[in-house]
Amino acid sequence: MESALAVAAFKSNAGFEKERAVITDNFDTSTIAHMEVALERACKMLSSGAEDHDVRRHIAARILERAEGGDRSLDGLTDAGRVAATELCPAHGV
């Protein structure tokens, strides 16, 4: 199953196949679902740019970092997404 998070995070990267394998091979379906929900929640925080690929990729990368660090809870992943969205606000005007 290809997750929306994998597509959002890595579609434009040259190593897309490798990164997608990391996500689907290293995380169970529950964690992947939590990552996707966290991504959508974070994007809803943005006043604009929520559908911009680079914005979603940035947020997804931060969520993935948190999950790779061992925090796979919905709250923890949502927090990582919220922090990433906040980082984008002043830098990109989103």
Characterise this structure.
The protein has 5 helices and no strands. Helix content is 73%, strand content 0%. The protein has one domain. The protein is globular, with a radius of gyration of 12 Å. The chain is mainly alpha-helical and 94 residues long. About 7% of the residues have low confidence.
Structure classification: mainly alpha
Specify the overall morphology.
globular
Count of individual helical segments:
5
The topology string of helices and strands comes to: HHHHH
Uncertain parts: 10-16
Total domain modules: 1
What is the tally of beta strands? Answer: 0
Distance between the termini: 31 Å
| Average pLDDT, all residues | 79
In terms of DSSP E residues, the strand content is: under 5%
Largest sheet geometry? none
Q: State the helicity in percent bands.
A: over 70%
Q: Give the C-alpha Rg.
A: 12 Å
Topology:
Blueprint: H1 4-10, H2 16-26, H3 29-44, H4 53-68, H5 74-92
Brief synopsis:
The protein has 94 residues and is mostly helical. It contains 5 helices and no strands.
List keywords for this structure.
94 residues; 5 helices
